[in-house]
Write a structure and sequence with these properties.
The complex is a heterotrimer of chains A (about 170), B (about 575) and C (about 625). Chain A has eight helices and four strands; from the N terminus they run αααααβααβββα. Chain A is an alpha+beta fold and about 170 residues long. A four-stranded mixed β-sheet of chain A has the order 2-1-3-4, with helices on one face. In chain A, α2 runs antiparallel to α3 and α3 packs antiparallel against α4. The longest helix of chain A has 18 residues. Chain A starts with a helix and ends with a helix. Chain B is α/β, with parallel strands linked by helices and about 575 residues long. Chain B folds into three domains: about 70 residues, Ubiquitin-like (UB roll) (Roll); about 120 residues, Alpha-Beta Plaits (2-Layer Sandwich); about 350 residues, Rossmann fold (3-Layer(aba) Sandwich). In chain B, about 35% of the residues lie in helices and about 15% in strands. Chain B has 19 helices and 19 strands. Chain C has five domains: about 140 residues, Glutaredoxin (3-Layer(aba) Sandwich), CATH 3.40.30; about 210 residues, 3-Layer(aba) Sandwich (Rossmann fold); about 90 residues, Ubiquitin-like (UB roll); about 90 residues, de novo design (two linked rop proteins) (Up-down Bundle); about 60 residues, Alpha-Beta Plaits (2-Layer Sandwich). Chain C has a five-stranded mixed β-sheet with strand order 12-11-15-13-14. Chain C starts with a helix and ends with a strand. In chain C, α19 runs antiparallel to α23, α20 packs antiparallel against α21 and α21 crosses α23. The longest helix of chain C is centred in the last third of the chain and has 18 residues. In chain C, a hairpin with a 5-residue loop joins β13 and β14. Classes of the chains: A alpha+beta (about 170), B alpha/beta (about 575), C alpha/beta (about 625). Chains in contact: A-B, A-C, B-C. Bound molecules: flavin mononucleotide, iron/sulfur cluster (8 copies) and FE2/S2 (inorganic) cluster (3 copies).
């Protein structure tokens, strides 16, 4: 969880100029570097801020509208900070027919998400759906920060969140 | 090159790039909403579908013609497809035709009418209405956008600015600015090309007609109107005339009957500009500094240079544009001459141009809170006023503009077309440099419509190198080449709009394309031919102004009233740069 | 460093000898399914146990010390296929397969390996006969499979290039480089290898077009986007046998005259990205990637590009746009990528599985390949078998196998003895096949005929508890989220179809809606710009045709026979059982239940919000849910 701590810091302050410089140096400034650059920023900051997109546009000599267009096209990018735990509920075909939606609803309820929102107000959880995580045999499947959980039931979901909550207590 | 069959009719192929061109040439008007001959192919609207034997339904705009193809453009299946496409587009469209500024010349509305779309079977979701941007010179209503991407492409490909792009995806896709900023906060240079090309009412010129009525009805104001050269060859289109037909006389009459107390010709100020700009140019040549000199009468280009190429600002001619010179003449000179206070004069410009609205509002052209030009109306807005007033344009008498700023030479008239400013300047510069009178004033070598033209004029003193570009992407190319030392020029003319002001963003929307623009241009050249005087230096009224007020071209007085300065605009990159790729 | 074809054989032999010297090799599945069910812990436990007993050895040790019978190997593998039973542990060379292994079983397993015995309780048990099956190859799930693309997946250690070479790897490359590029294309054409990415376009033909183009720069792209929900075959290959993809790209690159390749991997597969990057580094170290490969003039470099979450980027022109850094919006074709693709250069895009087949075709020949499968669809096809089937997992079968053989023989029938209702094939671009269509031969052309598609190979089995209308709505929703939004029919048409389907599952549909669905669907198929829109209506049109009855029940009777559509559930109080206790009325949040001491209680269907609270509140079971 040490990683998360540094990430959190970033989340509050946004990318530092040094970080952006490093990312730009790593990927170069051809237009084809745009997506990898945004991916690095997304991973570091957990979202793409307007400032970051503006600076990337400048560095790559692209129009900001183009960068914004790319950022809003791909599901991986978020224009709002994501929570500490990103829960992805698979709603691919295999998971869907094995009951992914009840799991999703239970999760949302358990972490207390209001209608139309995906990140809890305390910034702990983001719950989103994805289509197929490629582990369909375990359907229904969720991932929490890339850790896979399979054969989920509503009860299992509650247990997992309970565990995370207990970990959270140690964190604080 | 072979042949193919369109609806049974045999058509010879002539190097056309798409089946659409072939079909159009065969006299069949295929519906299109996302195709423009001057932009890259997009293929999104799916209206241009035709049936090709052996291949089924294909979109004609992006299908290369092949010899032997058997093409049908009017089958039961195609009719179903087109109707369905229109029905689908309309189902997520804010169909408020009666209060839409494009009603009557809207491509979408026209097609709905043409294909008899009568009932829409689909539900509309009113909850996701998007905010309308009314903050700048344009009004952008995303609820009327059909996502054809023409504005994205014209701003990116032709103007190399890229103010818009697609954002989000699926049914949530929008065409929008970066971060949904208001246009006024972007690097938009206000050329209006996006509004001119938009097939719907999603992008229109922000109307200022009410302000004009207010001034005209205000008894305490004397309303003086100036009309730019490019308007005379286009406004008739709004009333059924052919593009390029000059209706200057009727236009003047219309303005008078709307209540103008004086009508002046911006071309007069163009003649003045020629004298000033040539003086400046010859001075630079003599000193060998700040060359090439760039023209500066296009405010969209000026803003572009201020934002993206500030290092070239010293190269821009310091001359105000003809519109602003006229403003200066009226508020600083004519006011005194006619015994009026400048604040009691209300100056309206009729322009082919949306950027002129921005120009008139610049601080540089305001003295003690009084703008030199109070209001700028586009050709479109004026036509609307004429209609509103119930004036029967076609039967109006022809009257001349008022003196002292009504007489214009042929050189002043051709300002409205790409290459015109250069040619007008040459007509003077050539005489000054060679000290001989030009017999034939026409420099046809400078004319033409290719986006980037250059010409070398051999003189005894050396070679004059001229560059003429229109469309800011071409300007960008020339600036980059200059910066890299790849080319050399003495004088560069830049006009933001394709074809120059004849293709301005405020011109009538008649499906403007190269053809229409060329006809308008031909109209201006024709006016030059029929005008008695072809050289600005022979405009007596202009010379009188110098004798009476300004002393001589380039004098301190001239500098105070006819020249200006430019400023670097910060944070250029915020919405600048190229749009990636072209697909 | 490998410089010649002989070098390859040297590695192959020395690695083989080393393997032979080991007492046993314990292969722990590290495929996505097994990892999620805990196989890394099993691997760790095995490692520790062997070290503790001083039995542990590595291939490197065995190579150097030339010792005999003096140690056991523990390696990871990619997905072994039978993910349902994971974590899987296989003991080589006998091929003993242990299922559902936990770290606690490790002691016993090591004991048994040492003693040459088998832990029977961990072996697969046939559910019908309760017979224990010890060896992998005897399990019905595996018996009917033929492994070509997956030949190494689940067998080799994906992290060791020598393991791949030991299995004949890079010999296809060597064979190709000995020939002219025309000959290579000719072999692939003769094998009639058709694209496994869904379209079924002959790879040889595509290569020939690209090879014909005069250009300084050409590209070879491997499409690892695998966006179909319910499919993980390409993932398994990229993670479990990455070298086969690299080798396939090398051969393709040589054939078309490209010196650069890109692998586009979907964002949801971080492990595949990592694996491929390591594999590229390893192959480069061995000289199999880079300049002047195997001493020829052929040079080739590969870059991995990670997707960013967009299904449409599996479409070729969208994929190219994405690699170039743009929004993944398809562009009109022609020109096809083989003529003008990445940065305008001729570009061949092939699917992962297509490429994994290529090396084998080069080593074993076109005739061998054509001897498998169907005349017009030779070779095998991998499928991800999921849904309500007993044995889920990754399978590979000869083209043309009947669907029922897959569902019942390999898949072991419907889970829990349920009734088969439909099989969804080809993901969101495919169709739903009915019970009556189970005899259909799985190949490109037979499926096309019934309006379905082999797609990338997702097979989702559905039983009678699945509502096909709801599944159709689900696919439309998927398409709506994933449509790029560019063209009218796909953007607006699928939106309207989704609204109609939503209306139907919510109970507001009419019979006219069904006709409207067909009409929009047909127009969207014909009018859309790219394959996504063109195939988007398939699931709806195929279910409308095959399950019209079920749609009619939804719109006319407002019933969902599968009991899935919540709004169509109905709770009814059986008057004869009701004892007027009012418990149900008390819990009803909608005040939908009324009654009195004397009168039996009843539910006002108009008010009921279908929460089901009354059902559990009634202790007399007087309330019934009817579908
Ligand atoms: C919407 C859409 C999604 C696609 N997704 C994939 C994919 O995930 N993987 C893939 O290999 N091909 C996919 N394809 C097919 C590819 O466009 C392309 O045909 C294929 O990669 C070519 O390789 P092949 O000839 O080896 O099959 C998709 C096509 C469409 C229209
Ligand atoms: S854009 Fe066209 S169709 Fe739409 S409201 Fe305006 S006039 Fe009508
Ligand atoms: S056309 Fe019909 S709807 Fe439109 S304004 Fe006239 S009467 Fe009204
Ligand atoms: S007015 Fe010109 S610069 Fe501004 S957005 Fe439109 S096309 Fe671009
Ligand atoms: S604003 Fe107009 S030009 Fe731009 S995409 Fe929308 S409809 Fe097309
Ligand atoms: S070219 Fe003319 S119409 Fe266009 S922006 Fe410039 S001044 Fe205005
Ligand atoms: S069919 Fe769909 S995904 Fe394909 S171009 Fe059209 S909108 Fe985009
Ligand atoms: S299902 Fe819920 S809402 Fe309906 S009657 Fe029972 S308790 Fe009331
Ligand atoms: S809870 Fe059961 S028995 Fe009691 S009133 Fe309701 S239906 Fe009747
Ligand atoms: S459908 Fe959920 S993991 Fe594949
Ligand atoms: S004009 Fe051809 S698709 Fe729009
Ligand atoms: S993941 Fe282990 S068998 Fe598939």
């Amino acid at each position: 969880m040490t990683n998360t701590a540094t990430n959190l810091q970033m989340f509050e302050t946004g990318s530092s100029t040094n970080f952006l410089d490093a990312v730009l140096a790593k990927h170069g400034s051809e237009p084809s570097a745009l997506i990898p650059i945004l991916q690095d920023i997304q991973e570091n900051d957990r979202y793409l801020s307007q400032e970051a997109m503006d600076q990337v546009a400048h560095a790559l000599d692209l129009s900001a509208a183009t960068v914004y267009g790319v950022a809003t096209f791909y599901a991986q990018f978020s224009l709002e900070p994501k929570g500490k735990y990103v829960v992805k509920v698979c709603d691919g075909t295999a998971c869907h027919v094995r009951g992914s939606l009840p799991v999703y609803e239970a999760l949302r309820k358990r972490v207390g998400l209001a209608n139309g929102t995906f990140t809890t107000t305390n910034g702990r959880y983001t719950v989103e759906t994805v289509s197929c995580l490629g582990a369909c045999v375990l359907a229904p499947v969720i991932t929490i920060n890339d850790q896979v959980y399979g054969h989920l039931t509503v009860d299992a979901v509650n247990m997992i969140i309970d565990t995370l909550e207990r970990e959270g207590e140690h964190d604080d | 090159m072979g042949w193919l069959l369109v609806n049974g009719q045999s058509i010879a192929l002539n190097g056309e790039k798409s089946l659409l061109d072939v079909v159009q040439n065969a006299g069949i008007d295929l519906p299109t909403l996302c195709y423009h001959p001057e932009l890259t192919i997009h293929g999104a609207c799916r209206l241009c579908m035709v049936e090709v034997k052996g291949r089924g339904v294909v979109a004609a705009c992006h299908t290369p013609p092949e010899s032997g193809m058997v093409v049908n453009t009017n089958t039961a299946l195609l009719r179903r497809l087109r109707k369905m496409a229109l029905e689908l587009l309309l189902s997520s469209h804010d169909r408020e035709c009666t209060s839409c500024s494009r009603s009557g010349n809207c491509t979408l509305q026209g097609l709905a009418h043409r294909f008899g779309i009568r009932d829409l079977r689909f539900s509309q979701d009113d909850t996701d209405r998007l905010p309308i941007d009314r903050s700048s010179i344009l009004v952008r209503d995303p609820n009327k956008c059909i996502l054809c991407g023409e504005c994205v492409r014209i701003c990116g490909e032709v103007q190399s600015i890229g103010v818009y792009d697609f954002a989000h995806r699926g049914a949530k896709m929008q065409v929008t600015t970066a971060f949904h900023q208001e246009l006024a906060d972007t690097n938009c240079v206000h050329c209006g090309q996006c509004a001119a090309i938009c097939p719907t009412g999603a992008l229109v010129i922000k109307p200022q007609i009410q302000e004009a009525w207010n001034a005209l009805m205000d008894e305490s104001k004397t309303v003086i109107i100036q009309v730019a050269p490019a308007v005379r060859v286009s406004i008739g289109e709004e009333f059924g005339a052919e593009p390029g037909q000059s209706t200057m006389g009727k236009l003047i009459s219309a303005l008078r009957s709307l209540g103008a107390s004086k009508v002046f010709d911006t071309g007069f100020a163009a003649d003045l500009t020629v004298l000033e700009e040539t003086e400046e140019f010859l001075g630079r040549i003599q000193k060998g500094e700040k060359l090439p000199q760039f023209t500066s009468c296009c405010p969209a280009w000026v803003k572009y240079a201020e934002q993206f190429y500030p290092e070239f600002l010293p190269h821009l001619s310091t001359c105000r544009s003809p519109q602003q010179m006229m403003g200066s003449l009226v508020k600083r000179y004519y006011a005194k001459a006619s015994g009026k206070r400048p604040e009691d004069l209300y100056m309206i410009s009729i322009m082919p141009c949306t950027a002129k609205k921005f120009e008139a509002a610049r601080d540089e052209f305001t003295t003690l809170g009084i703008p030199d030009v109070d209001l700028v109306l586009t050709t479109q807005e004026l036509a609307q006023m004429i209609r509103e007033a119930g004036i029967d344009y076609t039967s109006l008498p022809e009257t001349p503009p008022d003196r002292p700023f009504g007489f214009v030479t042929g050189a002043g008239v051709i300002f409205g077309v790409t290459g015109g400013v250069s040619e007008a300047v040459l007509r003077l510069a050539h005489e000054r440099l060679t000290d001989t009178e030009l017999k034939n004033a026409a420099f046809t070598e400078v004319r033409g419509y290719s986006g980037m033209r250059s010409w070398e004029l051999e003189l005894d003193q050396g070679t004059l190198r001229l560059g003429v570009v229109h469309g800011l992407a071409n300007a960008k190319a020339i600036l980059d080449d200059l910066r890299a030392g790849k080319v050399y020029f003495d004088l560069v003319e830049v006009m933001a709009c394709p074809g120059g002001c004849i293709g301005g963003g405020g011109q009538p929307i008649t499906n403007v394309n190269g053809q229409v623009r060329q006809e308008r241009g031909a109209g201006l050249y024709q006016d030059d031919v029929v005008t008695a005087v072809h050289k600005s230096q022979q405009n007596r009224d202009v010379l009188n102004i110098y004798a009476d007020w300004l002393d001589k071209p380039g004098s301190p007085m001239a500098h105070e009233f006819l020249h200006t300065t430019y400023r670097k605009r910060g944070a250029q990159w915020k919405t600048s740069g190229r749009a990636i790729g072209k697909a | 460093m490998i410089r010649t074809g002989e070098d390859i054989q040297v590695v192959q032999q020395s690695y083989g000898q080393a393997l032979k010297r080991a007492t046993a090799r314990i292969v722990v599945c590290a495929g996505p399914g097994c990892v999620a069910s805990g196989s890394p812990l099993v691997y760790q436990a095995l490692l520790e146990e062997l070290q503790k007993r001083n039995l542990y050895t590595t291939v490197d040790c065995l190579m150097e010390e030339e010792r005999d019978g003096s140690g056991m190997l523990v390696t990871n593998s990619g997905c072994q296929g039978f993910c349902q039973q994971g974590p899987l542990v296989r003991v080589e060379p006998e091929g003993v397969l242990y299922t559902k292994v936990s770290p606690a079983d490790v002691l016993e397993i090591v004991d048994a390996v040492e003693a040459g015995a088998v832990v029977k309780r961990l072996c697969y048990r046939e559910p019908d006969t309760h017979q224990t099956i010890v060896h992998e190859q005897d399990i019905p799930f595996y018996k009917n499979q033929v492994r070509v693309a997956l030949a190494n997946c689940g067998v080799v250690d994906p992290g060791d290039i020598r393991a791949y070479i030991h299995r004949g790897g890079y010999q296809g490359l060597a064979a190709a480089l000995e020939r002219t590029s025309e000959d290579v294309i000719e072999i692939v054409s003769r094998a009639h290898l058709r694209g496994r990415g869904g379209g079924g376009f002959p790879a040889g033909r595509k290569w020939a077009i690209a090879a014909r183009q005069e250009a300084d720069q050409k590209y070879m792209i491997c499409n690892g986007d695998e966006g179909d929900p319910g499919a993980f075959m390409d993932r398994s290959i990229m993670e479990g046998d990455p070298h086969s993809v690299i080798e396939g790209m090398l051969i393709g690159g040589y054939a078309i005259g490209a010196n650069t390749g890109y692998i586009y991997v979907r964002a949801e597969y971080p492990l595949a990205v990592k694996r491929l990057q390591q594999t590229i580094a390893e192959a480069t170290k061995y000289g199999l990637l880079g300049n002047r490969i195997l001493g020829t003039d052929f040079s080739f470099h590969i870059h991995v590009k990670e997707g960013a979450g967009a299904f449409v980027c599996g479409e070729e022109s969208a994929l190219i746009a994405s690699v170039e850094g743009r929004r993944g919006m398809p562009r009109p074709k022609p020109p096809f990528p083989a003529v003008a693709g990445l940065w305008g250069a001729p570009t061949v895009i092939n699917n992962v599985e297509t490429l994994a087949n290529v090396p084998r075709i080069l080593t074993k020949g076109a005739d061998w390949f054509r001897s498998i499968g169907r005349e017009q669809s030779p070779g095998t096809k991998t499928f991800a078998l999921t849904g309500e089937v007993e044995n889920t997992g990754l399978i590979e079968v000869p083209m043309g196998l009947a669907l029922e053989d897959i569902v019942f023989q390999i898949g072991g029938g419907i889970r829990g003895g349920g009734e088969l209702k439909a099989v969804q094939i080809g993901g969101p671009s495919g169709g739903c096949l009915t019970k009556e269509q189970m005899g259909i031969s799985l190949d490109f052309d037979s499926l096309q005929e019934v309006g379905a598609m082999i797609g990338s190979g997702g097979l989702v089995v559905m039983d009678e508890n699945t509502c096909v209308v709801e599944v159709a709505r689900f696919f439309m929703n998927f398409i709506q989220n994933e449509s790029c939004g560019k063209c009218t029919f796909c953007r607006e048409g699928t939106l309207q179809m989704l609204r109609i389907l939503q209306r139907i599952v919510d109970g507001g549909g009419t019979e006219e809606d069904l006709d409207l669905l067909v009409e929009i669907g047909e127009m969207v198929q014909l009018g859309s710009l790219c394959g996504l829109g063109k195939s988007a209506p398939n699931p709806i049109l195929s279910t409308l045709e095959n399950f019209r009855e079920e749609y009619l029940m939804h719109v006319l009777d407002k019933r969902c026979p599968a009991g899935v559509c919540n709004n169509l559930r109905r709770f009814v109080i059986q008057a004869d059982k009701c004892r007027h206790c009012a418990q149900c009325a008390k819990v009803c949040p909608a005040n939908a239940i009324t009654g009195s001491r004397t009168e039996s209680y009843r539910i006002d269907q108009g008010k009921c919000v279908k929460c089901g609270a009354c059902l559990s509140a009634c202790r007399l079971d007087a309330i019934e849910e009817v579908y």
